[in-house]
């Protein structure tokens, strides 16, 4: 559904920009076909081709950045530009209702065209400036957020236990060693007993798997690092990503569970399920029952599941679900466009007796920019209820 909606939105943005360009600039009106093909190439064809080239050959990072930021600028500017153009069109139709149409050849630009050209330039400049800030600064502004969660059945001995959650690292072209160090330094500040990674460790290029795994393992919290797979790990190669993590000593839970601190009043169950995307690769997908079969009954349950909407499959069966996937919307220019498609985007939710926490993630997808959704490290403090 998201793919269909985003494809339709891309076509709509392309049409809006095309109409504005050919109606506003006489020189472009005489080259309608060139304008249409150029917009189609930029908005529809070029981004996936650039991402594929960067993943396969590890080249074109700066060029790809500029291209994706340009596409995002056009997409976000298309909304106010379209509204402006529609308003001018409606005003013109009302004013000229019943009159003979103006001559087809008009020398120079009319006052309306000049105003629309200036307005479009302002909108494009504003969108580009905001996205450029998000690329230069926003995606590096890691935040450490503390969240206290009451856990029924948690032993008193584990009251105040700290889990550091990170998600959606997307190790690759835009998240390499520098960005990993920036974010993982905030993880160290959390002074966690356990570190969990809720999917999407690598973004398309499996050669980044060992780097991500080694730097995660270097965190060395008392109770180790545990991870689950996300959809981008499947796009990259789930077995390769999981193998790199396990080689580094990181536990990967694929429909599996284990007991944390069993000697402290019985401890708690840490569960992990496979990603929803696994079904596209011939695998069963998330199976909570299988994970539960590996831990004793009657102890508190904490679940790692990459995509937050999975909580609706088992409401009330776990005390806490930690998820990611959404990047907190990633680009929120005063509002969250992701809210048009997603119910759980960032922060805490209560779903049928289960507390869901959605981490905003480390990396980016699409334009390497974050606006109104800073990268996050979550410091989850467990409170005995």
The helix content is 40-55%
N to C succession of SSEs: HHHHHEEHEHEHHEEEHEEEEE
Average pLDDT score: 89
Number of strands: 12
The best one-word shape is elongated
Radius of gyration: 25 Å
The share of residues in extended strands comes to 15-25%
Uncertain regions: pLDDT < 50 for 5+ in a row? Answer: 98-106
Topology:
Layout: H1 2-24, H2 26-29, H3 32-57, H4 61-95, H5 111-136, E1 143-151, E2 162-166, H6 177-189, E3 194-198, H7 209-217, E4 225-228, H8 231-236, H9 238-247, E5 251-252, E6 256-260, E7 268-272, H10 288-292, E8 301-304, E9 320-323, E10 347-351, E11 354-358, E12 376-384
Parallel strand pairs: 1-12, 2-3, 3-4, 4-5, 7-8, 8-9, 9-11
Antiparallel strand pairs: 2-12, 6-7, 10-11
Could you explain the architecture of this structure?
The protein is an alpha/beta fold and about 375 residues long. It is built from ten helices and twelve strands. The chain has helices at about 1-25, 25-30, 30-55, 60-95, 110-135, 175-190, 210-215, 230-235, 240-245, 290, and strands at about 145-150, 160-165, 195-200, 225-230, 250, 255-260, 270, 300-305, 320-325, 345-350, 355-360, 375-385. Strands 1-12-2-3-4-5 form a six-stranded mixed beta sheet, covered by helices on one side. A six-stranded mixed beta sheet has the order 6-7-8-9-11-10. Strand 6 (about 255-260) and strand 7 form a beta hairpin. Helix 4 packs antiparallel against helix 5. The two termini are about 40 Å apart.
């Amino acid at each position: 559904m998201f793919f269909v909606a985003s494809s339709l939105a891309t076509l709509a943005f392309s049409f809006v920009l095309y109409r504005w360009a050919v109606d506003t600039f006489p020189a472009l009106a005489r080259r309608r076909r060139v304008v249409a093909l150029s917009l189609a190439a930029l908005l529809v064809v070029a981004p996936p081709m650039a991402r594929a080239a960067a993943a396969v050959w590890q080249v074109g990072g700066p060029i790809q950045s500029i291209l994706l930021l340009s596409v995002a600028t056009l997409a976000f500017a298309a909304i106010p530009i379209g509204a402006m153009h529609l308003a001018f069109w409606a005003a013109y139709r009302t004013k000229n209702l019943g009159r003979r149409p103006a001559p087809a050849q008009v020398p120079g630009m009319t006052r309306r065209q000049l105003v629309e050209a200036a307005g479009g330039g302002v909108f494009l400049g504003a969108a580009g400036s905001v996205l450029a800030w998000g690329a230069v600064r926003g995606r590096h502004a890691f935040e450490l957020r503390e969240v206290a969660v009451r856990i029924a059945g948690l032993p008193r001995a584990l009251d105040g236990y700290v889990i550091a959650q990170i998600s959606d690292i997307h190790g690759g072209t835009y998240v390499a060693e520098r960005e990993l160090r920036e974010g993982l330094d905030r993880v160290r500040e959390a002074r966690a007993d356990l570190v969990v990674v809720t999917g999407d460790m690598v973004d398309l290029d499996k050669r980044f798997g060992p780097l991500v795994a080694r730097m995660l393992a270097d965190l060395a919290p008392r109770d180790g690092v545990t991870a689950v797979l996300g959809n981008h790990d499947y796009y990259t190669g789930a077995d390769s990503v999981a193998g790199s993590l396990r080689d580094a000593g990181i536990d990967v839970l694929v429909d599996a569970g284990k007991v944390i601190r069993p000697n402290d009043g019985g401890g708690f169950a840490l569960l992990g399920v496979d990603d929803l995307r696994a079904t596209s690769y011939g695998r069963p997908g998330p199976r909570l029952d299988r994970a539960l079969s590996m831990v004793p009954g009657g102890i508190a349950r904490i679940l790692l599941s990459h995509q937050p909407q999975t909580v609706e499959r088992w409401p009330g069966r776990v005390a806490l679900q930690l998820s990611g996937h959404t990047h907190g919307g990633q680009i929120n220019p005063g509002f969250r466009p992701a809210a048009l498609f997603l119910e759980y985007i960032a922060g805490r939710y209560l779903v049928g007796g289960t507390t869901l926490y959605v981490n905003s993630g480390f990396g980016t997808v699409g334009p390497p920019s974050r606006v109104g959704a800073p990268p996050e490290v979550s410091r989850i403090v467990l409170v005995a209820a």
